[in-house]
Amino acid sequence: MFERILIGSFAGLLLASCADETPAPDVAAFRQLNEQLVAAVDTHQTNIPGMTDMAACTAERDRYEADVRPIVDRMRDMSAGMDDCMIAMGRDNMADMQKTCGGMKDELTTHMGAACASNDLAQDRAESERHCNAMRQTAQQEMGRADNMMQGGGMMSGMMSGGTCHD
């Protein structure tokens, strides 16, 4: 309980520091989207063995895209504000969330073109496994950045020196 209060306090300080001209990033909502993304990737990975014919492969691919693309798009939309806040607080080296989310979108687009494109279902399943691993790794990176923002990890100097979010 104390940890949640402490994390909430740090998040409040961070959001207050970003409140001048740039809207504060909604880090908690971003983390929730990231968790939804990982759950969707996990479901896709669980469903891979069921891709036993082209119809099943295509159905799973389409189901997965319908679940994941809106999440990735929303994360990408939110990431620009998070990067702006990081830059405003002097943490330029951590302002990579928009680029990383763009990479996730590119990975998803690549996967949609390659998934179920082969007549060899083993290759199609291998592509889906590869994609799941890539998305999970990228999601972990994004979660780490969001955790840094919520916990103020290493960013207290920016907040204490009056670092604010300005254009």
Could you describe the 3D structure shown?
This protein is mostly helical and 167 residues long. The protein has a single domain (2-160), classed as Up-down Bundle (Four Helix Bundle (Hemerythrin (Met), subunit A)), CATH 1.20.120. Helices cover 75% and strands 0% of the residues. The protein contains six helices and no strands. The protein has helices at residues 2-17, 27-47, 54-88, 97-114, 121-151, 156-160. Helix 2 packs antiparallel against helix 3 (54-88) and helix 3 runs antiparallel to helix 4. Residues 1-17, 19-23 and 153-167 have low confidence and may be disordered.
Question: What descriptors fit this protein?
Answer:
167 residues; Four Helix Bundle (Hemerythrin (Met), subunit A); 6 helices; 75% helix; disordered C terminus
Number of strands: 0
Average pLDDT number: 80
Just name the CATH architecture: Up-down Bundle
Q: Looking at the chains present, what oligomeric state does this protein adopt?
A: single chain
Structural class per helix/strand content? mainly alpha
Proportion in β-strands: under 5%
What is the level 1 CATH name? Mainly Alpha
Largest pleated sheet: none
Low-confidence stretches: 1-17, 19-23, 153-167
Number of domains: 1
Number of H/I helices: 6
Round the Cα radius of gyration to an integer and report it: 19 Å
Distance between the termini: 36 Å
Classify the fold: give the CATH topology. Answer: Four Helix Bundle (Hemerythrin (Met), subunit A)
Q: What is the helix content?
A: over 70%
Backbone shape: elongated
The topology string of helices and strands comes to HHHHHH
